[in-house]
Design brief:
Pfam families: LSM. LSm subunits form a heteromer with a doughnut shape. Keywords: mRNA processing, mRNA splicing, Nucleus, Ribonucleoprotein, RNA-binding, Spliceosome. This protein has one domain: SH3 type barrels, CATH 2.30.30.100. It is about 5% helix and about 50% strand. The protein has 1 helix and 5 strands; from the N terminus they run βββββα. A hairpin with a 2-residue loop joins strand 3 and strand 4. The N and C termini lie far apart (about 30 Å). The mean pLDDT is about 90.
Length: about 90
């Protein structure tokens, strides 16, 4: 059983090794931690604001995932994500 199994059908935020931030509903996972996100969107941060790019149904390879966390949907509803300003994350350096 995958460690991500308890997160199935919940909203998650995934940080990938190349610095991408993906948000969506976790629909499935397998033994190699590949994940399927439904209603997935990528958040691209910049010093002028955050761009939200809808991706739809999205598969992320387990070997490209750095972190998976539950998303606080109540706080998400109260925020205007597009107004958040931040420098983009770079790729993980090994």
């Amino acid at each position: 059983m995958s460690l991500l199994q308890p997160y199935v059908d919940q909203s998650v935020l995934i940080l990938t090794l190349d610095g991408r931030i993906l948000v969506g509903t976790l629909r499935g996972t397998d033994q190699t931690s590949n994940v399927i996100l439904e209603k997935c969107e990528e958040r691209v941060f910049s010093s002028t604001g955050t761009e939200v790019n809808p991706l739809g149904l999205y598969l992320i390879r387990g070997d490209n995932i750095c972190t998976v966390g539950l998303l606080d949907t109540e706080k998400e509803q109260d925020m205007d994500i597009t107004q958040i300003k931040a420098e983009p994350l770079g790729p993980l350096k090994l």
